[in-house]
Amino acid sequence: MKTPGPDEESASRPRRTAQPGGRYEIADGVWVLCRSDRAGPDTAEVHRDDRAQAAGFPSWRAEEFLAGRATLRRLLREVRPDLADTAVRPDARGRPCLVGHPDIGVSISHDGGLSAAAVAPGRRVGVDVQLPADEPSEGMLRRCLRGYAAPLLKLPAPERARELAWVWTVQESCVKAAGTGLAGRPWAIAVPPGHRRGRWGRYRWASLRDSSPVPLSCAYTPREDPRARGRRTAPPVDLEC
Q1: What is the pLDDT of residue 136?
Q2: Is the pTM of this model over 0.85?
Q3: Fewer CB within 10 A of the end CB, N or C, for the chain?
Q4: Alpha carbon distance 110, 120 (integer Å)
Q5: pLDDT tens across 49-80, in order?
Q6: Residue-level pLDDT at 17
Q7: For residue 87, what are the domain limits?
């Protein structure tokens, strides 16, 4: 594990477009979109293939699944319209993958009526959105923040909860990009509170603290040779595809 440090590729603040729905470019060619699911996706946004995959799900899971897929497809329409109708399936590690386009990294997250998606051509990518818990326990803070926990324990509960949510979005986005999910022990990833950018191994991460009204982070790799993808396999995990 490397000590988190500035991202030499882009140390500037994430660029937010004027598009409604919260679209961000956090690095060159790494796009994130976050929006509310409360009204549900428009009927026109629900792709027939996604609907077919959700047919056997419980109603709550189907709604969540379709909202996440609709957010991903909306982002694709904005940044890669040629891929907006592509089928989405989990790869060998459980990450969502555009069928026939393994070189296009995609990721989906949802929590508390929000969904987020990331698209990153030529990279692996993970995204996570998280609403703060009402009052995180001291044990949870110490587990996720370790040596950074002590100062946060002195803060009021809402501030502790919000900071923990920011840190967790980084940790979760990293293991989603890596394709390990919770098996990758995200709570062990060192994330200094308040930081906007850093590194975990080969992965770079960015928290959209200056742009997003809710905790939202994304992890991604440098651009890679598409031929290197898929050479390693691991047991599938649930990565919110």
Answers
A1: 84
A2: no
A3: N
A4: 18
A5: 999 999 999 999 999 999 999 999 999 999 99
A6: 39
A7: 15-228
| Structure-token pair, residue 11 | 């140390």
Amino acid letter, 37: D
Whole-number pLDDT of residue 240: 58
Kindly state whether residue 239 falls inside one of the protein's structural domains: no
Q: In what order do the strands lie in the sheet with 23-27?
A: 15-16, 23-27, 30-36, 114-121, 104-111, 96-98, 88-90
Number of structural domains found in the chain: 1
- The DSSP element (H or E) to which 151 belongs, if any, is helix 149-152
| β partners of residue 121 | 104
Tokens describing residue 158? 């809402």
Residue 9 lies in a domain: no
98, exposed or middle or buried, with CB in 10 Å at 0-12, 13-18, 19+? buried
Tokens in use for 203? 């992965």
84 in a structural domain = yes
In a domain, 195, yes or no: yes
- E strands in the chain: 15-16, 23-27, 30-36, 88-90, 96-98, 104-111, 114-121, 125-129, 197-200, 203-207, 216-220
CATH code (residue 104):
3.90.470.20
Q: Which tokens hold the place of 127?
A: 């995204």
CB 110 within 8 Å of CB 196: no
Asked if residue 218 lies in contact with residue 205, where contact means CB atoms within 8 angstroms, the answer is: yes
The stretches in the chain having pLDDT less than 70 are: 1-21, 38-44, 224-241
